[in-house]
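Example record used in the benchmark description.
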Amino acid sequence: MLRTQFKSWGRGCQSPCLGNANSSEGGLIAARDARNHFAQRCKLPGPLTPKGLSDPTRRKQCKASVDGGNTSSALYNEDVRLYDLSVSFRDFEEEVDFLQEVVEKHVGQPLKSALELASGPGCHAVALARRGVEVVALDNEEAMVAYGLAKANAEGVKMDYICGDMASFDSIPTKDGKVQLVYLLFGSVAHLLTNDDFIACLNSCRSVLAPNGIIVLELQHPNDVFKATELTGDAWEVNDTERESMLLVEWGRDTDEFDAISQVLQRHISFNVISKKGEIVSSKEVVLPQRLYTANEIDALARVCGFDIVQHCGALDLAVPLDDEQQACRMVVILKPQA
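Model output (structure tokens):
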């Protein structure tokens, strides 16, 4: 089991990881200060301004390389455990409570079967499997699939994990080939870059969804989508007590390019492992294209596929509405097939 401590140095609502995260050490500060903190800790000359990590000289000093292929594989496959560590502060048991509550409310039955898309380390899927739910996880990264299966085996739970494209599947290994719930969290909807991709994903979901089943999507909050050109990114650190090091995650920069027509953001993401001495052990950086969706776009695309939105939430909490100015930090959409 990963033993970690979390501290946030950036805004809490832009990354797919910080929707429900809270820091007890002074709250969240600007990502600019996070980079300066990173520079001081790693003994780089001068403060890191928002453009600092984009400078080739600084990048060389950080031993980081940009993956021009715009793929997450270079970031995650090198050490899948780092991604698991980066999201380890999320309360997976509480979020699984939410998934079960959603099914009970909108399906009218206890949750017995589920499919998680873009499952990554499989944290939610494993948590559901522990509760006796028949779970299938899907991810397009073979390293993630292997890691998730190892996690399930280590905890002694049964879970099917398949490697595949969330926009192109038509069968899953459940008893009847159907599930009550399909869910896509961590803002991974953003990997569906076009309307066609989104429609293909929903059509695939429909092919395995049981009658009266539902789909749950977790996306960026509209407040962040409509301020895409003003996003400064997030940064947070997690102490890895097992390896006696710290992981500093950078999720986006204010220099990231945004295409106003395609609504695709070229997001810089970096994982930086720092030793107790403040030295960089490893550093990897990629540029990942991510589509920003509005609430109305989700509604329109869902209806094209024969779904209706039955509820919006502002967090993984049924009691938090999307327009709650105090608590809403994500856009959670619950879809159900049209009657």
